[in-house]
Amino acid sequence: MSVLKASDLRKHYQLGEYKVEALAGVNFNIEKGEFVAIMGPSGSGKSTLLHLLGGLDTPSDGEVTLAENQLSKLTEYQATLVRRHNVGFVFQFFNLLPTLTAEENVLLPIIIDGKNPAHYEERLTNLLNLVGLLDRRTHKPDQLSGGEQQRVAIARALMTQPAILLADEPTGNLDTKTGMAIMELLQRSCRELDQTVIVVTHDPRAAAYAGHVIFLRDGLVVREFTPGDDVSIADRMSGIMAAMQQAVDA
């Protein structure tokens, strides 16, 4: 079942007399439970695409269909509700509230939605267990390592059981070992929760955990790559790097 579709997606910005085309007609379809990595050089349109897919920005042309909702046909309020109920976001810089504990940060989307957090204790416990932080649930962000803070951010993003989780360079502020642990966690959420995950990354090692890799260049999809399920992360990474070079040469 399709949970996210980009149809001839375009985005341009006006800088004085010049029009900058960030996306020039992107098309793809993502199924439930897929783990997708979006790669490309700086300025290729990766982050712009992620913001459009999550309803944080509107396209200049084309359509995003999220959980069977065509975003262009919704009012701003309707789009906010669709985003709130169907998208979880994970960013490079965690964005945790420093005065709240780990479990309070995870519950934040429930509170914002006007629901009683007491009714979500079982889900909270299950998510903290998934991310390995049951014993750190009462710690505040300054008492947690960078990797632990990112785990809290992932649990928070999953709290509302979103149709899709969007992650923008989730390992970019972490050391290599911790970053790969975060990618393993995202991969596990796909496997155990049937969660759809899209990650923007510049790192082939991180992208190797995905089952589908999309390469952007100059605002266009120039190549797609599907690593084999039965090969090692190292072999997947080698395949991605070869595909990256082919995308550059295309």
Structure, described:
The two termini are 31 Å apart. Strands 6-7-8-3-9-10 form a 6-stranded mixed sheet, sandwiched between helices. It is globular, with a radius of gyration of 18 Å. The chain contains 8 helices and 10 strands. The mean pLDDT is 88. It has a single domain, classed as Rossmann fold (3-Layer(aba) Sandwich). The chain has helices spanning 46-53, 76-86, 102-112, 121-130, 146-158, 176-193, 204-207, 233-249; strands at 2-15, 18-31, 35-39, 61-66, 69-70, 87-90, 164-168, 196-200, 212-217, 220-225. The chain has 250 residues and is of the alpha/beta class.
Features:
Rossmann fold; six-stranded mixed beta sheet; 8 helices; globular
What's this model, at a glance?
The protein is of the alpha/beta class and 250 residues long.
Helicity, as a percent range: 25-40%
Low-confidence stretches: none
Secondary-structure-based class equals: alpha/beta
CATH class assignment? Alpha Beta
Tell me, briefly, the overall form.
globular
CATH homologous superfamily heading: P-loop containing nucleotide triphosphate hydrolases
Structural domains: how many? 1
Counted beta strands:
10
Strand/helix succession: EEEHEEHEHHHEHEHEEH
Estimate the mean pLDDT confidence.
Answer: 88
Backbone CA Rg:
18 Å
State the distance separating the first and last CA atoms: 31 Å
Helix run count: 8
Indicate the CATH topology: Rossmann fold
The CATH architecture assignment turns out to be 3-Layer(aba) Sandwich
Instruction: Please give the largest β-sheet.
Output: 6 strands, mixed
Share of residues in strands: 25-35%
Major sheet: arrangement of strands: 6-7-8-3-9-10
